[in-house]
Amino acid sequence: MSALSPNSSRPSNPLASRHPLLQPSPAVVDALAAGRPLVALESTIVAHGMPYPQNLHTARAVEAMVREHGAEPATIAVIDGRIRIGLDEPTLERLAQAGPQALKVSRRDLPAVLAGGARSPMGATTVAGTMICAALAGIEVFVTGGIGGVHRGAATTFDISADLQELARTSVVVVCAGAKSILDLGLTLEYLETHGVPVLSAGQDDFAAFYVRESGLRADQRLDSPEAQARFIRAKWDLGLTGGVLLSTPVPEADALPRDAVDGWIAQALADAAAQGVSGKAVTPYLLARIEKLSGGRSLAANIALVKHNAEVGGRLAVALAADRRAG
Ligand code: PSU
Ligand code: MN
Question: Domain extents for the chain?
Fold first, then answer.
């Protein structure tokens, strides 16, 4: 593990000093050595959010998009009891094929996939899980599709994603296309406000609603340029205000789905989940898969398009944040 690579004198694991369980991919090691900014990507979206092989193709396309905009992608997962920062091709393939057999890893689940060392189950990190690992690795920007939030009916189920609490405490920017209306978007924004999480929007005034561009709910502030976003983020963290920032950007117009159709699929998926008694961490993956079926795959195409767009926004932001730090 600690061997030097043959063609250089740099250590093979520059992240070991940050935490001994962090294991960067060779591409991430190279990016760190070159001073290229990193963008974290989650793995629950791969294992639990999309079917094989579209999940694998999407993961690759998203990585390529980040690279195209000047940053290095680092897909995060827990494999063989180590926190992988960047996955090489065979490992990404393994995770994509494992699908729902991989453990869905949020904050509370991290010990379960680390405690057994190499015998631990494979772990696909959620937004919360990925934020924790990204912060450990010193990565400031993280791109996902949609975040978890306050579920409809949370007043009785208490179902509020750990993603929101993580945004409150962990200093990483999460770029997303808002959240699906399987959630209560109004309550999700209220929760974020209570916990002091700024919600920025790029490209429109509204917080985005995943397959649909507008949610009817305003973000706190619209900041279209990566430079303006970077200044806002630095201003927050320079004040000692730890915690995340949510940056929402809408699905590209050409790929957005009709609101009425989406509302119908979501209502049906929620009714099916209730009839089946689905609960706990199974709820979100169940709803995602159900909506894909009900939409005849249209939701998947929109999902892929929006994640790629988020990767462009996140890649540009990572470059601007790195420049802002250098300008200091
Ligand atoms: N929303 C999506 N796609 C996803 C997820 C959410 O549109 O793949 C995943 C993310 O990994 C998110 C997790 O962090 O689901 C939230 O799960 P829960 O609601 O159980 O906290
Ligand atoms: Mn939940």
Answer: 22-327
